[in-house]
Amino acid sequence: MKFSAITIRHSWPEWVELMRTLLKNGYLEAAGSNSSVEGGLNAQKLNMIRTACSTFARKQSHLIRYFSRKDMEVLVESGCWSTKRKVVNSGKRLRAYVGIDERNVCRSCVLRGKCDRAYVNVTEEEKEEGAHTLDIMRLLFAYGNGDISNPKVEQSVRKLMSEMVEHYKYSSDEVNQNKLMTSFIQQDSVHLEQNTGCVKTSNHTSLKKGDWKCEGCNSFNFAKNMMCWHCNERLSGRQLGAGEWECDSCSYLNFRRNVVCLRCNYRRPKASIC
After folding, report:
1. Closest alpha carbon to 39 in 16, 57, 58, 20
2. What is the DSSP string of 45-89?
3. Does residue 14 sit in helix, strand or coil?
4. Is 73 exposed, middle or buried (0-12, 13-18, 19+ CB in 10 A)?
């Protein structure tokens, strides 16, 4: 399918860019040669967009750790957008994820009288598992195809859409870089001893300072990664340099001079600034 086969229209440039990303990466397919993608269209096209958004979000489950926590709070603190079960459940998981009391939200929600999940908390298992990128995407899709009367909510919705695209591009580039490094080191410098089955790295191999090998899957990571690009295993025993700090929102390693995280714009608490 050619990129020009679909015309994307929406009053939000963030929505247009998200649709372009889905289209460019094969998640969105045209229903016809002159199809258009925009909010408020017929059920068939909305279902096509919903499916593309859901597929994308499931495959990019790691993206949720990069999103602005503040904007996620704004997204869910005022109640649910609709009484559809999947949307409601996603809202509940996100509230548990960011630490918002479910009963307080339900108490002030205008839809509580029509909702069969009102005042129902997520299970302990769901709390432990956490929220997913799909939960964010369901709400962004709902808001993107409806009227938002609250400017604060609209601002956060549009910002999260923008982050969805930006962090997808960033993480895709980073994964490719890490794959390349892992492949190079394994092919050029790692030798398998047939008698013992042990893997040893030759003496001439030297990673840059701070680069590390994941204990879970043996993939090599750049120093800036606090979690493995391949299996999301967290780096343990990391010794931070003088003044360096790890972002509470996305685990990115920042230099002392950075007041806000270079990856997600999370502002470092003043109390921890040295």
Report:
1. 16
2. HHHHHHHHHHHHHHHTGGGGGGS-HHHHHHHHTT--S---HHHHH
3. helix
4. middle
Indicate whether 216 pLDDT > 60.
yes
Alpha helices in 4-42 (DSSP H): 13-24
CA 267 to each of CA 152, 171, 180, 258, 270: distance values in angstroms, whole numbers, following the listed order? 19, 21, 32, 9, 9
Cα–Cα distance list, 74 to 30, 87, 160, 197 (Å): 33, 16, 11, 53
Record the tokens describing residue 23, joined without a space. Answer: 């289209």
Q: What is the pLDDT of residue 41?
A: 59
149-155: Cβ within 8 A, 24+ apart: 150/78, 152/74, 153/74, 153/75, 153/78, 155/74
**Token pair 């794959």 is at which residue?**
179
Q: Which two tokens stand for residue 21?
A: 């990303």
String of DSSP letters for 170-231: HHHHHHHHHHHHHHHHHHHHEEE-TTT--EEE-TT--PPTT-EE-TTT--EE-TT-SB-TTT
Helices (H) and strands (E) in the chain, counts: 8, 8
Do residues 245 and 254 touch, judged by C-beta distance below 8 A? yes
Let me know: does 132 contact 126? Beta carbons within 8 Å.
Answer: no
Q: Please name the residue that has the structure tokens 């997204």.
A: 75
- Three-state DSSP state, 254: strand
pLDDT reading at 115 higher than 70: yes
